[in-house]
Each structure stands twice: as C-alpha cells, then as structure tokens.
Amino acid sequence: MKTKAEKVYILLTKIPKGKVTTYGSIAEKLGIHAREVGRLLSENEHPDKFPCYKVVRSDGSLGGYTIGNRNDSSTLKVKKKKLIKDGVKFNKDKVDKSCIFYV
Question: Which CATH number do you get for residue 38?
C-alpha cells in the first residue's frame, strides 16, 4: 500500500507541461487536507522527478516553495521562474486560470 506522500508524488507526474494543479485538487482526490499536501510537498526529496513546484493555491497565487530548509520570497522567485520556463502563463503574480489542471 502506498503512503500519502507517494500518492501525492504520483499525482505530480500527471500534471501536463504548461499546467499546474492546486493543493486543494490533490487533497480532494486523496481525501486529505490541503495543508497536509503542502507539508508533504515540502518534504519532497526528489523535486526533479516529482515537480512539486507545479502546485499552487486555488486562487492561482504561488503558495510556498521549499528549497532545502528555506521557504521564503527568494524560493518563490525560483518557483515562478520554473513555471514560466515550463510554459505556465501569469496574470500579474497569479497563474492564469487556463493553466490550472485538476487532477
């Protein structure tokens, strides 16, 4: 049986290029709380394999992004750059709604 973390990470691999999903979408799919999704993502030891940067808040804002033990404005800049490189569109500081994918 897979752990909650494994289930979350598997869903990350299903997000298409140029799209993001939300903490709430993952939480609803797995029957857990969105904050638990965020906590599990912050513990992701393989971000290249499981792209946790592709998860945002339901309003399109970036939420958090942990690199090492840091989660601050500098790590959010890294998250936004990765999303832009992946083809995600923004309206000011929020992901364009057309780029949100519900798992």
Answer: 1.10.10.10
Residue 72 has pLDDT above 90, yes or no: no
Residue 16, domain extent: 4-99
3-state secondary structure the chain: CCCHHHHHHHHHCCCCCCCEEEHHHHHHHHCCCHHHHHHHHHCCCCCCCCCHHHEECCCCCCCCCCECCECCHHHHHHHHHHHHHCCCCEECCEECHHHECCC
> What total number of domains does the chain contain?
1
Q: For this structure, is 52 an active site residue?
A: yes
In the predicted model, is pLDDT for residue 68 greater than 90? no
**Which candidate in 12, 20, 52, 62 is catalytic?**
52
pLDDT at 73: 87
